[in-house]
């Protein structure tokens, strides 16, 4: 299983439209459309999980293509590193 990062998505994107886009290149196992926690609106990126060979094909075919008027950025997701937010320190609540 390979997790892909999909960036530069239009803010009108839905999970269904993203699934349809990637399903043309193989079976989509999981989609995580990232939303703003305050507004619930999409933040312009998502993660898509597919089989390794299918993910490689989708990445090759979709990176840089137009989707909703924006050029997609599709690459293999990197593991999240431990640590704080944008300032690099611990999170304060």
User: CATH superfamily name?
Assistant: RRM (RNA recognition motif) domain
CATH architecture: 2-Layer Sandwich
CATH T-level topology: Alpha-Beta Plaits
Q: Characterize the overall form.
A: globular
- The helix/strand order is EHEEHEEE
Low confidence ranges: none
Biggest sheet strand order reads: 2-3-1-6
**Average pLDDT, all residues:** 90
Radius of gyration: 14 Å
- CATH first level: Alpha Beta
Helix content: 10-25%
- How can the largest sheet be summarized? 4 strands, antiparallel
Quote the beta fraction. 25-35%
Q: How far apart are the first and last residues' alpha carbons, in Å?
A: 35 Å
Computed structural class:
alpha+beta
Number of helical segments with 4 or more residues: 2
Q: How many domains, as an integer?
A: 1
Topology:
Elements: E1 2-7, H1 15-23, E2 28-35, E3 42-50, H2 52-62, E4 66-67, E5 70-71, E6 73-76
Antiparallel strand pairs: 1-3, 1-6, 2-3, 4-5
Structure description:
By secondary structure, this protein is an alpha+beta fold. It has a single domain, classed as 2-Layer Sandwich (Alpha-Beta Plaits). Helix content is 22%, strand content 33%. The chain contains two helices and six strands; from the N terminus they run E-H-E-E-H-E-E-E. It has helices at residues 15-23, 52-62, and strands at residues 2-7, 28-35, 42-50, 66-67, 70-71, 73-76. A four-stranded antiparallel beta sheet has the order 2-3-1-6. A two-stranded antiparallel ribbon has the order 4-5. The longest helix has 11 residues, at 52-62. The termini are far apart. The mean pLDDT is 90.
């Amino acid at each position: 299983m390979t997790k892909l990062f999909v960036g530069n998505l239009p803010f009108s994107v839905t999970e269904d439209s993203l699934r349809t886009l990637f399903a043309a290149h193989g079976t989509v196992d999981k989609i995580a459309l990232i939303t703003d926690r305050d507004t619930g609106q999409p933040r312009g990126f998502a993660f898509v999980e597919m089989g390794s060979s299918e993910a490689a094909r989708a990445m090759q075919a979709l990176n840089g293509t137009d989707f909703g008027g924006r050029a997609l950025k599709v690459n293999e997701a990197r593991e999240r590193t431990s640590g704080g937010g944008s300032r690099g320190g611990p999170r304060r609540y």
